[in-house]
Amino acid sequence: MDIATATIAATDIETRAQVDTLIAGRYRLEHVLGRGGFAVTWLAVDQTTSARVAVKILSLRSVDHWKAVELFEREARVLRNLEHPQIPRYLDFIAPSEGSDRFVLVQELAEGDSLADLVKRGWRPTEAEARDLADQILGILDYLHSRSPPVVHRDLKPANIVRRADGRVAIVDFGSVRDRLAGSSEHASTAGTFGYMAPEQITGRATPASDLYGLGATLVNVLSHHAPDELPQNELRLDFREVIHVSPGFERFLSRLLAPAPEKRFASAQAARRALATGMAAPGSDKHRLGNFAAERVAVVVTPDALVVDIAPQPRWPSVLFTLLALAATVALVTSGVSGELSWFRLFWAVVTGLITWRLGLRAGRSLTNVGLRMDADGTTVERRLGGMKIRRRHISRGEPATLAKKGLLRRDLLLHTRGRTERLGAGLHRDTVAAVEARVLQLAADLGE
């Protein structure tokens, strides 16, 4: 018998010996639910209430450094302050006392099966079920990350997500939790599970975005039945396209969650949830229109790396006709003045018709152009094209969406805002449509972390 086998056998003997043990004179152990790095989680019965509970035990004999104790106490402290229907409620914490070398954490029992167990039994969710799963987990993460300071789980994986028979899920095992972000002068610890751990966690720099990566890896696992560390990588990005088959929108959603760089993921769990609920993950919707604006010819395309808005031309033929007539009148006045005597009267009317031609020409020209806006990691680019010819291009370096709105750049350059008034515009946009489009674009830009 080798050392590893002997160790496992000794652990099993110790476990069997603890069955029916009464903890703190109250919690009777029944059977093991799971094992972590140092702690063991039991199903137990509260002798006072007859309720089934989860009891997590850390024996000082099983730890070889004090970090395990620190993490266990941190888990208890964090759970004590959490209150969410999809996080098992904290019930009790028992520190070692005379004659005992065990730390004990008691929680409400999360009824159901872990996603890891379901996958082992052959369960494979449909895309609709996977999207619902993602939505629920993002709701829990939004609650955790919105706390002050943010609570980062750091070990999101199928084994730590329990699914009930009705489809509701819960996040369990906060043994790796962090409730403050490591500063530059602070020693950073590594926690998580290889394959589900975001690249930045290797250096101990876990952030809320790290949990989004764990969610992405979890979804890939339950959809493909492949462990993330078994899949090929392309520039550190998991290449899962050969093993799962989902709509292009949901594929982009997963790819965004699994971006190697934290700043390339969604800006928050809330932003990811909005993307899931709106355009980005809707099956069969690679090109998304803004509400009921199809008649306005406004289209939005969302990719993992950029937001692209395109406003098709809508020619205003009366303006074009009047521009040509005004131009003809201006030319006639100028040429007649050149060939004959140039009077002040003719000069005045030449200037007037020239100004009218210029004003009408701007409106007519704009109505014939295609306006495009692209927001990505480099900033915002606004282009105006006439046919296939680029006639104007402006690049704005990366900035916050609020800055874009404050400066009026969207209205001025994209929506043709003129003299502080939103008119019936050359792109065919009405007043209410302009406001709605601007608000939607700013929301999508915020979701992209612009």
Describe the model.
The model is unreliable at 1-11, 281-296 and 404-434 (pLDDT under 50). The protein contains twelve helices and 17 strands. The chain has helices spanning 3-18, 67-80, 115-120, 127-145, 208-224, 248-257, 269-277, 317-339, 344-368, 401-406, 409-414, 431-447; strands at 22-23, 27-35, 40-46, 52-59, 90-94, 102-108, 113-114, 161-163, 169-171, 233-234, 237-238, 287-289, 298-302, 307-311, 370-376, 379-386, 389-397. The strands form four sheets. A six-stranded antiparallel β-sheet has the order 1-2-3-4-6-5, covered by helices on one side. The chain has 450 residues and is an alpha+beta fold. It folds into four domains: 3-108, Phosphorylase Kinase, domain 1; 113-285, Transferase(Phosphotransferase), domain 1 (Orthogonal Bundle), CATH 1.10.510; 289-313 and 369-447, no CATH class; 317-367. Helix 4 packs antiparallel against helix 5, helix 4 runs antiparallel to helix 7 (269-277) and helix 5 crosses helix 6. The protein is 37% helix and 19% strand.
Question: How are the elements arranged and paired?
Answer:
Blueprint: H1 3-18, E1 22-23, E2 27-35, E3 40-46, E4 52-59, H2 67-80, E5 90-94, E6 102-108, E7 113-114, H3 115-120, H4 127-145, E8 161-163, E9 169-171, H5 208-224, E10 233-234, E11 237-238, H6 248-257, H7 269-277, E12 287-289, E13 298-302, E14 307-311, H8 317-339, H9 344-368, E15 370-376, E16 379-386, E17 389-397, H10 401-406, H11 409-414, H12 431-447
Antiparallel strand pairs: 1-2, 2-3, 3-4, 4-6, 5-6, 7-8, 8-9, 10-11, 12-13, 13-14, 14-15, 15-16, 16-17
Helix pairs in contact: 4-5, 4-7, 5-6, 8-9
